[in-house]
Specification:
With about 180 residues, the protein is α/β, with parallel strands linked by helices. It contains six helices and eight strands, in the order E-E-E-H-E-H-H-E-E-E-H-H-H-E. It binds zinc ion.
Length: about 180
């Protein structure tokens, strides 16, 4: 593994940082600079974890990044709220079971459904192709009756979104 070493005034202890483009940096505190032997063993201990992270980042490189294209966060968020509501309105039986709808920043997911009936969605939803957005909303909606990914759950999704398997696959090409 290749990495650059950076000495830091603020760092309290050693850490390995993986950047978006796959670069690795070993941050070493200036105060109490560890010995080379200590550094080597630290890198050795963490190598598996770092390699896993680098692999994941390389995989993300091929994914589509959803860009605001200069539109402010609040506007994107509001667009997503409008779109989510529009989709949900098509399913009145479920709509009544929803307590709250939240549109927020997520790092690794598109949406969630809580036991209490709160649906949350990633604010970037409205930047996705509309059929993928529909699939995500239906997916979370179907969780109201099944808080798992059982056969019954997927049957529910299928009922409202017959092409869900294709959308599920397409969704993987987008970076959350
Ligand atoms: Zn789910």
């Amino acid at each position: 593994m290749e990495y650059k070493m950076r000495k830091s005034k603020r760092a309290q202890r050693m850490s390995l940082v993986v950047y978006w483009d796959g670069r690795c940096e070993l941050v070493v505190p200036i105060k109490n600079t560890p010995s080379q032997k200590h550094i080597d063993s630290f890198v050795r201990e963490n190598i598996k974890l770092i390699e896993k992270r680098v692999k994941k980042l390389e995989c993300n490189k091929n994914k589509t990044h959803l860009s605001h294209q200069g539109v402010p966060f609040e506007v994107v968020q509001e667009n997503t709220r409008l779109l989510v509501n529009k989709i949900l309105a098509k399913y009145p039986d479920y709509y009544n079971k929803i307590k709250t709808i939240r549109i927020k920043k997520y790092k690794a997911q598109w949406g969630s459904c809580s036991l209490s009936g709160c649906l949350s969605f990633n604010y970037k939803l409205s930047l996705l192709p509309v059929e993928l957005c529909e699939y995500i909303v239906i997916h979370e909606l179907a969780h109201i009756d099944h808080m798992n990914h059982s056969k019954l759950f997927w049957n529910n999704v299928l009922k409202f979104c017959p092409d869900y398997q294709q959308y599920k696959k397409e969704l993987r090409s987008y970076l959350v």
